[in-house]
Amino acid sequence: MMTDSGQDTYGDSTSASRDGRATRRIRMLVVAIIIILLLALAGVGIMLANLISPRSGVATADATGGIEWVRSIYGWGTTPEEQFVQPHKLDIAEDGTIWVTDAMYPSRAFAFSPEGTYVSSVGDEAEVPLRGLGPIAVGMDDRLFIGEPMLDWVRVFTKEGQDLGAFSVPNPIDIEYARGTMVIGSTSGFAIIDPETGAPRVVIGTRGQGDSEFDTVNGIAIDDDGAIYVSDAYNNRLSKYDAEGERVWMVSTGAPGNQVELTGGTAMAESRVTTAPAQMQLPGGVTIDGSGRIVVVDAFDFSISVFNQDDGTFLAKYGEHGRLDGQFVWPVSIEYDPQRDWFAVADKGNSRVQIIRLPGSAPGVDVESQIRRSLAGPLRACVPPVLLILLVLIVLAVRSFKKRKDSQSGVAGDSV
Fold first, then answer.
1. H or E element, residue 392
2. What is the mean pLDDT of residues 409-413?
3. Mean model confidence pLDDT for the chain
4. What is the pLDDT of residue 372?
5. What's the pLDDT score for residue 37?
6. Using the 8-state DSSP alphabet, how is residue 215 labeled?
7. Alpha carbon 193 to its chain's center
8. Which of 249, 333, 370, 394 has its CA 20 to 30 A from that of 125?
């Protein structure tokens, strides 16, 4: 149809009708996508609610002494022969891989993903079989250092299992390798070691109960400044040394374990129980959390104690005895994963490795801590659908803005 001005209004109306139908189809498609994404988000929310809600076998916050349980690792397979018996020492690699030694499987060290999935093991193909495994440490270059206390040496492997040899260290009980510094503890003290040659740079201590003596260095941690923190298990002490091996402070964390009375040849842990919350019974593994606090496991108190790194002041204690998730029976080793704000604990008496969280362990304010914790947990499953919804909303907003702009341009042209 032609108007007096010569315009084809029929063609214009047909084109407008097609544009309108196309716009409606696009809108319906967008609405459908949003509905699907919202349903997916709701499903994730239900899953998270099920994960967060207490279940049978999972202890409540009161029953775990304030610990938040994440997951437990019981072994590397499904058969009884593929389950942990006595997980002894562990370390966490830079990528979050958890390496574990088990006292009852002396020829292998096991690797697990942060999600608890078995990845691999080291030692099966070693030229000299591993025997009597003790501590394990992972370097930034992914070399593994595995102590064999009964043989007085430390074995070196790649994470793929290639045997790189060994170096001599008397009775290696714990190994820490961080920020280019290696420290190895023994019954009589500890040594700062050259990680390339295995030669000692500084040796600190002799065996005994004196001020500068040790009776089993059972845990070691190194902070960002190179300061060294060691737990002296049977003297029941915690000490800080600078990077050169000079002592900064030492605190007594309880009655010495070497004075415990024996009943029928068995050490009675109850004889060392004290009422003061700061007291420990058998300090073991040591690590440093995201807030810079010193975190120490106590095998005989079934707990985790937290200390100030500046002066060793006691800050808090978490944990309860038991076999539910989040409880402990003889926890012996602990390491912190700063990327996920959680701890891996070798829960030896329960034959498992537990992944847990502690209050205040992440740096910054509580809001930041919660964000770090959430993104490291199941909540990260919500991120993709939320981002897609935001993307769809942005596209709709841009299209709407462009349509209004085109409409205004058309009106201005008609008026001209």
1. helix 383-415
2. 61
3. 83
4. 55
5. 74
6. S
7. 26
8. 333
Arithmetic mean of pLDDT, 272-300: 86
H or E stretch covering 366: helix 366-376
Least confident among 20-29, 51-60, 145-154: 51-60
Location of structure tokens 């891989």: 97
pLDDT in tens, 169-190: 999 999 999 988 999 999 999 9
The CATH code belonging to domain 68-376 is 2.120.10.30
Q: How far apart are CA 334 and CA 89, in angstroms?
A: 8
> Would you put residue 333 in left (φ > 0), alpha (ψ -120 to 50) or beta?
beta
What is d(CA 245, CA 91) in angstroms, rounded to the nearest whole number?
23
Based on its alpha-carbon atoms, the radius of gyration of the chain, rounded to whole angstroms, reads 30
Domain ranges of the chain: 11-52+382-407, 68-376
407 sits in which H/E element: helix 383-415
pTM for the model stands at: 0.75
The amino acid present at 121, given as its one-letter code, is S
The answer to whether residue 379 scores a pLDDT higher than 70 is: no
**Location of structure tokens 């459908």:** 32
From residue 304, give the alpha-carbon distance in Å to each of 2, 248, 280, 347: 88, 23, 9, 12
Whether the CB-CB separation of 346 and 100 falls below 8 Å is answered with yes
Say if strands 105-112 and 118-122 run parallel, antiparallel, or are unpaired.
antiparallel
Fill in the DSSP letter of residue 192. E
d(CA 234, CA 260): 9
In this predicted structure, which of 20-34, 97-111, 137-151 has the lowest mean pLDDT? 20-34
Element (H, E) at 383: helix 383-415
Q: Are 327 and 320 in contact (CB under 8 A)?
A: yes
Strands (E) located in 86-222: 87-92, 98-102, 105-112, 118-122, 136-138, 143-148, 153-158, 163-168, 174-178, 181-186, 189-193, 200-204, 206-207, 213-214, 217-222
- Residue 167 is classified by DSSP as E
